[in-house]
Design brief:
elongated; 6-stranded mixed β-sheet; Ubiquitin-like (UB roll); 247 residues; Rossmann fold
Length: 247
């Protein structure tokens, strides 16, 4: 009876040791494939560089939180989801990117000027993977002061309204949008647009479609007399429009 008991105890302890082996195998199994998915334009090389994966690291040993934080520290990445697929030995990285609304010029710490883009939520970032044509089509932002934080710059307030106005103008009046060069928040919450030919067009927040219709009518009316050059159009009055003409 004593011999049988010892055999059972040995068998159970041996079985326990065997049961832990699969976990250790998972720890040491290398990543077979990295799958990169994004709804934007970030190139694979850019994403891979920020993962900072050590060579030969096991799938269970990757620092998912660290990778997520590094990716989301860039304003262009709104959210990053990183998962392990043990069936295929894959690390899956899915990104949701910010949409560029407007651009601006900023100064780096060494005093050099650099082009930045601003997303719908006001995030300020360098912008990777965007075409030159897309960037040239964005107006410049004016009337704001950039404030640095540990990751770059703090988000700019008031950009949501700019995004609403620009998107509506692109869709309903692209012939107007193509002439817009600068949007200023100097008189926020009112928005001031500067075009090729007009120094200031003032919009009030809300009901942009009605204001755009007024603007289109005014511009069409003054095109009939090219001798008069409009200098300022104020659409912020509810029942009327103020137009300043150069004499």
């Amino acid at each position: 009876m004593i011999g049988i008991g010892l055999g059972i105890v040995y068998g159970l302890s041996h079985f326990g040791a065997e049961a832990t082996n699969p976990s250790s195998l998972l720890d040491s199994s290398p990543i077979e494939e990295i799958i990169l998915l994004t709804d934007g334009v970030l190139p694979d090389e850019w994403i891979t560089e920020r993962l900072e994966l050590p060579e030969g690291v096991g799938l269970m040993n990757v620092d998912i939180d660290g990778m997520k934080n590094r990716l989301e520290a860039e304003g262009q990445v709104k959210s990053a989801v990183i998962t392990r697929d043990f069936s295929g030995g894959s690390l899956v990285v899915s990104l949701h990117e910010e949409v560029p609304v407007i651009r601006l010029m900023a100064r780096s710490k060494d005093g050099k000027s650099m082009l930045m883009v601003v997303g719908r939520d006001g995030s300020v970032y360098r912008g990777h993977g965007y075409s030159r044509q897309l960037l040239r089509g964005l107006p410049f932002l004016d009337g704001v002061r950039l404030v640095r934080n540990k990751d770059g710059f703090k988000p700019i307030s008031g950009v949501a309204k700019i995004s609403e106005l620009l998107q509506l103008t692109r869709e309903d009046a692209p012939h107007l949008y193509r002439t817009w060069k600068v949007v200023s928040l100097i008189d926020s919450p009112r928005l001031i647009v500067k075009t090729k030919d007009i120094s200031e067009i003032v919009f009030e927040p809300g009901n942009f479609r009605r204001q755009l219709a007024k603007l289109d009518y005014i511009l069409d009316y003054y095109r009939r007399d090219p001798r008069e050059r409009m200098d300022r159009i104020d659409l912020s009055f509810r029942d009327q429009v103020a137009v300043e003409v150069e004499l």
